[in-house]
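Final report, Chapter 2: Outcomes

The project's central promise was a pipeline that accepts a single protein chain and returns its three-dimensional structure in a standardized token representation, suitable for archiving and comparison. That pipeline is now operational. To close this chapter, we reproduce one record exactly as it appears in the project archive, with the input sequence first and the structure output second.
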Amino acid sequence: MTIMTPASLLAAKGHAKAAAILATTMTCYGLAQADGLATLDQHLKAMRTGTASFTQTVTNANKPGPAKTSHGQFAFNRPQQFRFDYTKPFVQTIVADGKTLWMYDADLNQVTQHPQAAALSASPAALVASSNSVEALKKQFQLENVPVKDKLEWVKAVPRQADTSIKDVMIGFDNGQLRRLEIIDRFGQRSVMEFGPFSSGTAKNSFQFTPPAGADVIRNP
């Protein structure tokens, strides 16, 4: 059975030249829309620092139930510093200052401290805040273009480390701007992070963290 595409329909009516032009245009458009790797590389090289609001939605295929939604603010200073400030429904802070990864839970009044290099080597944060180019990312991830979906350009990233809990990460761009991360882990959990418009620049002390007075501090080797 012959499948009639727009180009073949035109050709069937005798408009072979128009069909050829349409087919060429559609091919070029598809290639341009599908080159998420080039967009990711440009984003990493051009945007060295910035801030944006975000909404994170978490579901679990193995544990049916309502989605968990959080809101907050994201800031980064490539290649070694970033910050997530969760404000709703719970207050949590994650700061990478270049040497140490700090995680603060306000409800528990607890701070967890990790050596940054070991904690972030193949994490989703490395994809958007801790690398300067696609070539650098390829040391930690297998990267590939993915077809356009939801009007976004996509790159799929699979960690090269076998022992990471992350299965894969989808990175979505809208007109060159980072808009969405979709993170799938090996336990069935799916985390979707939607970013608002990014503004350039961050405050000088954005990536400094001092444990609040009286907080329990847990140091991991």
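Archive annotation: The longest strand covers residues 49-60.
This record, like all others produced under the grant, will remain available to the consortium after the project formally closes.
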